[in-house]
Amino acid sequence: MAEEDRTHNTSNNTSQDQDKLLEVLRRALRRNHSKKNRRIPQTFLRNGNINPNFLRSEDTPLTLVARHPSHIDILERLIEIEGLDMDIRDSKGRTALSYACELHEVRYVEVLLLNKAHPNLQDQEGRTPLSWAATPTGKRNNFSEVMELLLKYGADANKEDLQGWIPLMWAVSKGSDVIVADLLSSNPGNVNHQDTQGRTPLSLAAELEHQTILGLTEITGLLLEFEADVNAEDEDGYTPLGLAVIEGQKAIVGLLISSGADLEYKYQKHDCCTALLLATKHHEQFAVVDELLQQNAEVNCTDVHGCTPLALAAKQGFYKIVKKLSAHRDINIDTKDLNERTPLSLAAGSGRLQIVQYLIQQQADINSKDREGQTPLAWAIRQSKDSTVVEELLNNKTIDLEHQDVNDDSPLFLAAKSNNSLMHILMKAGANAMRIVNGHSCFWWLVKARFEVKNKPESSVPSRQLNSFQMLEIIPYHSDPDLQENNRTLLSWSAEYGDHAMVQALLEHGANPDIRDGPPINAQIQSIEAKRIDASSNFSKTPLIWALINGHLAVVDMLKEKDSFSLHLLIKERELLGDQEASKLVCKLLKTGYDINKLDSEGRCTLHLLSNVQDTKFAKALLDAKDVEFSLNLQDNARKTPLYYALKEKNEAFVRMLLEKGADTSNISAEAWFHLSNEAIRWIEFTQQDSGSISLLWERMASIDRRNQKPNFGKKRTLLDVLADVSSHSKQSLSFEPSESHISRRDQLLRQGRGQKIIQILAQNGVKRAELQRALRQHVEGLRQAIDEDTTIFPEQKGRLQAQVNEFDKSVNAKVFEIERAVRELLQIVRIFSICLTASNFSKGICLDLNQRGS
C-alpha cells in the first residue's frame, strides 16, 4: 500500500471515531496497567469500523503508543489489528520505530522490526531510527542492544541527515562515550566523516565542549584512537585544535597537540592566526594560552595584520594574558603591527587602563609612533571613553605633548577636532593652546567640531563632549581672544556657527566684538558650512553680522549690547551687500532690539548715516519701523545732527521725513539750508505787501572755503557791495504773484515791516559770524589736541586747561548763537526744490514754501 494511502485512508472512519480512539489510548497510557484498563482500548480497537492508519492532532495511534514506554501490551494489541501500517508517520515525519529507538525501548524496537518496520526511514530532518538511538532521551541506556537489532535488520550507520550528520556525530554531540565507542567499533570508517560544513566528529568534540560539560575529552581520545584526522579543516577554515582553543578546552588542546596537531598552523580564513593568536583574539582563554606556551608556541608570531598575541590581548583587554605573555623570556613588548602600532598604542586606543599601566611599568615606549605619526596618547584621546588612560599617560614625565602626526595634529588638536573635554586636561598638563597650524588654532577646530556635532543625530554624537562650564575653563588658556585666524577672530567664527557657549566664554574673556574680518587667506576654508547664507566676500563682517546672516539670533542677543557699529556698517556699506539684502538684515537686526541710537567712533547714529541713503524706501522702512525710537536730534562729534547731513547731501526726501518726524531745526545754520539747491546761494527778503510774495536779495554767493576759512565773493569787494548789487537788480526785475492762502506763524513774524537794509546788515553779520565761528572751532579743537598730546603737561594740569578751553568755547558759541537765531528767523528755507517762478522775466527765482513746519 502506498504511503499516502496508508496515512490518510480513513474511509471507514469518521473524525469523531478518530478523536475517540486517540482519547481512549491517551487515557490508557496515563493509567496503571490493570486488566480493566487494558481491556478498554482492546475492546475499542476490535471495532471493525475503526481504521487505525490515520493522522489526527499531529499523532497516529501507533506513534502515540510508541512515545510512551512500558506499554508493550497496548502496542502488541494495536499491532494485531489487520491492515495496521508499521511505518505510518506523525506530523514530524517520524515513525513508531524512531520513537522506540530514542527511548531505548528494546522490546518496542524488536516487536516493530519483527512486524516489518523499516529501519532506515528518515523524518523531516533526515534522521533515521539509528540516529535517534544515538541521542537517547529516556532513562534506559540500551544502545548496544538497540543498535544490534537495527543493524541486524539492515540499518545504515552511514545514513546522513539534512546537515550531513551520521549517527556517530549525533552521539559525539551528546557526549555519550559509550555510544561513540559502540558506533566506532561497528563502523570505524566513519571516524573522518564530514558534514555539510566540513566538520568531522573530532571537530564536533573540540567545538561542543561548552554545551556538554562531561564526556567529550574521553570521546576525543576514542576518536584519536581510531585515527581521526587531527588537522582536518572545516569550511570555516578551522582545525579541531583551532576550535578547541576558541572554546577554551585546555585538556583537549593538550590531547590534540600530543596527537600531532600543528601548533603553528595558520588559519588562512582567520587573518592567518595561529592557535596562540586565536586564544588571545576571541575570548580570555588564559588556561589555553598557558598550555600553548608550555607546548612551546611561538610567542611573537603575527597575523596578517602584523599583530602579535600580546598586541591582540592588549587590545581586547585580557590583563592576565598580557601579564603571562609579557613574562615570557622571548617577548618583544614593542613589536609593531603593519600600521606600526605597538601593544601600548592598541591598549591606549581601546581604553584598557590596567594594561596601559602594566605596559608602562614594563618600560614600553610611551612615545612610539605609528604609520600616521600618532602616539599612544593620540590614540587614547581618539577613543575618548574616559579620561583615565589619558591622565595615566600624562603622569609620565617623558610624554611628548606637542608631537604632531602626519596631518600636523598634536594631541590637543585631536581633542579639539572631536569636541573632547580632554582639552582641559591637556592644557593643564602644559599643552600649547596657542599653536597655529595651517592658519588655525585648536580653538578654531573646536568651534568647527561643535558645529558638526550640533547637526548630527543624537545617537551618533560621541561621548565626552565639552559643555558650557568646561568651555569657560579652557578659554582662559587662549592668551589673545582677538587673535585672527585666516584674518578672522575666534569670536567671528563662533558667531558664524552659532556656538552660544563659545561666544559667551569669549566675551567673558574680553573678546572684542567690533573687530571686522580681513580678506580670507585660504579661500578653501573660508566657508566650512556649504549651505550657509553668504554675503558678498567684499563685505568685511563683524561677529554680530555673521550671526545675523546665519540666523543665530541667540548669539545676536549676546552680542548686540557690546557691538558698537554693525548697524552702521550695514547702512554705510550696503552697496557691497546689495540694497535689498542690507535692508533685510537691518530690519532683522532691529527686531532683536538692537539700539538704533548707538554711536560710532565719530559719534554718529543710524540717522546720521541714513542722510546719505538716497533709497527712499530703505530710509522710510527704518523710520517707520515699529517699537523703534529714534533720537532725531543727536549730535555727532562735530555737533551736527542728522538733519544737517541730510541737507548737506541734498537728500530732500530724507529731510522731509525728518521734519515730519519732528526734527529740531533750531541748530541748523542758515547756510545749511542752501545745500538742497543745485543753484548758487540766493538771499531773500520778506516784504510787507499783502501779497506775501518773495524777492531775491542777491543772485550769487559762493560757499566758504573750509581750508582758508574765508568767504569767496568772486569779484565783489565786500558783502555790502554784493547786497547792494543784488538789491538793485531785484527791484528792477522781480514782480510778485498772490500768496498762498495759508501762512504759518513764522511767516507772520517775517512779514512785520522789516526792510531790505536790516536784512542786508543781518546777512552781512551772519556771514562774518559764520566765518568767525569756524575759525574759533578750529582753534578750540587745536587747543584740545595740543593739550592731549603734550607730554610735558601733568595730568591734573590737563584737566584744568581743558576746562578753561571748554568755558571759552561755551561763552563764544552762546554769543554766536544769538545772531544765528536772528538770521534764521529771516532766512529760513524749508523746501528748496519746490520751485515756483515769481516773475515771468526771472526764470530761476526761488519761491519758498513757507507752510513747512519748523521754528
* Secondary structural class: mainly alpha
* Count of helical regions: 43
Would you state the CATH class of the domain at 1-156? Mainly Alpha
CATH superfamily of the domain at 1-156: Ankyrin repeat-containing domain
Low-confidence stretches: 1-11, 523-533, 682-755, 828-855
How would you characterize the largest beta sheet? 2 strands, antiparallel
If you compute it from the alpha carbons, what radius of gyration comes out, rounded to the nearest whole angstrom?
Answer: 53 Å
Q: What fraction of the residues are assigned to beta strands by DSSP? A: under 5%
**Mean of residue pLDDT values:** 79
- What spatial form do the alpha-carbon principal axes imply? elongated
Name the CATH architecture of the domain at 1-156: Alpha Horseshoe
Kindly state the number of beta strands. Answer: 2
Named CATH topology of the domain at 1-156: Serine Threonine Protein Phosphatase 5, Tetratricopeptide repeat
- Placed side by side, the strands forming the largest sheet appear as 1-2
The percentage helix is 40-55%
Span from first to last CA? 128 Å
Descriptive notes:
This protein is mainly α. Helices cover 47% and strands 1% of the residues. The chain is elongated. Mean pLDDT is 79; it is low at 1-11, 523-533, 682-755 and 828-855.
Describe, in short, the structure shown.
With 855 residues, the chain is mostly helical. The protein contains 43 helices and two strands.
Task: Provide tags for this entry.
disordered C terminus; elongated; Serine Threonine Protein Phosphatase 5, Tetratricopeptide repeat; 43 helices; mainly alpha; about 0% strand
